[in-house]
Amino acid sequence: MNAGVAVVTGAARGLGLGVAERLIDEGWRVVMVDRDVQATIEASRLSPDGAHAVALVGDVTDETVAEAAVSVAQQRFAGVNALVNNAGIGGPSTPVHLTDPDQMRRVLEVNLLTALMMSRAVVPHLIAGGGGAIVNVTSVLGQRAEAGSGAYSASKAGLALLGQAMALELAPHNIRVNSVAPGNMLTAMHQEHVQGIADRSGSSYDQALAEVRATVPLGRHGTGDDIGNVVAWLLSDQASYVTGQTVAVNGGILLS
Amino acid sequence: MTIPARVLVSGAGSGIGRAVCSLALSTGSSVAALDKSTEGLAAVRGEGAFAIATDVADETSVVTAVADAIALLGGPPDAVICAAGIYRFEPALGLSAERFREMLAVNTIGSFLVARESVRAMSDAGTSGAVVLLASVATEGGDTAEPAAHYSASKGAIVALTRQLAVEWAELGIRVNAVSPGVIQTPMLRITDDPAVAETYLRSRVPLHRLGQADEVARACLWLAGPGSSYTTGSVLAVDGGASVG
Known about the structure:
The complex is a heterodimer of chains A (about 260) and B (about 250). Chain A has about 260 residues and is of the alpha/beta class. Chain A has one domain: Rossmann fold. In chain A, about 45% of the residues lie in helices and about 15% in strands. Chain A is built from 8 helices and 7 strands. A 7-stranded parallel sheet of chain A has the order 3-2-1-4-5-6-7, with helices on both faces. In chain A, helix 4 links the parallel strand 4 and strand 5. The longest helix of chain A is centred in the middle third of the chain and has 28 residues. Chain A is globular and about 55 Å long. Chain B contains 7 helices and 9 strands. In chain B, helix 1 packs across helix 7, helix 3 runs parallel beside helix 4 and helix 4 runs parallel beside helix 5. Chains A and B meet through helix 5, helix 8 and strand 7 of A and helix 5, strand 8, helix 7 and strand 9 of B.
């Protein structure tokens, strides 16, 4: 299964856009799903004639959106071979014991439950097609928590283990399931996080960004390209004996 | 996407190292192939690699071999795959210090020496690149059928080495990662000596229900050594058909 049809959630911005761009470069046809209308309109310019990608506006917490994405994949590209569960939101930075349960529910809903809903819609088609691949975009914060990351860390650690269970369940169907765990990436979500650090410490945004960068052994932030390259590799036949794994894309941050 | 121009592979004469060598040659890289075995070296020379006789357990041999490799490649490697390794099993109660040291000398220290010599040259020349070490699914748990405390320890040390070298060499622009193979069809594999045992193992312990091929591990090694994984360092990637989560 090389360069088939992939459904990518949260695909109009940030890391998801990097994934979609990379997959299109590799010859995949991509159904991009995002709830941000303006960003989705802009993302549709990746393939103006719709030959390589279709951008679909939809909130993946609505289960009908998963079905719609699969329908679009079937009608436009005659099937689906891969799923990238990338859609996610940041969590509240409050300590766990002060966190509003509704805020936590919202984080779990978007970051964890949508992967299940997308899988319910997509996996039967992968099985019927004789195989496929799934990549879940988790986080370094799903591998190691920090103060204030409770809800987000729990959602991403949950997603990683959901993926392991799926890897075991789907291996007999020749479907591989892996995770990619980004570290500090130059995305809007990270920029908000850095602004938060700056506000709390009274430093400037640039200072806070440089301080984050200094903690990364490779000495830089990651990009959508860094994630896109890894997702493209994991979805390809190049990774044919790799399943149930997490590939860290974090510049070595967990080691320093 | 660009591929590594100059690849150095230890243990290149057989198994995973041989597959790395063949794959790198097929994609147009220049390859320096280090191995102890004359037949292995002849085979990779036949494929177009620079074949260099090396005993990775001997520091002087490694220093000389890597220097020769750099001369033949026309510069320091940008991808280094340390695949030389031995596998033996024997119950821990009968395991001598000498046998244990022998295992560490080849699998752990031998891998370190190949990496160190290569990275010294890269650092001196101001070039960047990536190192890939070979760990093993044996670091994930014990095994009574093939008891190999010395092998497991030698490969567990590779995981620690990967993390430490990744941090030390990040500022040189050199990434260090490990690939952790599961049961792979190579001359090292013993489980297939009894087909019934292999069949049971694959069905009960390997979610993908099949042996891995050396080429599948080679693809992971060269991917981790190339630009497709440019923000990944200090990681261990299992290529085991899901065995480590099964």
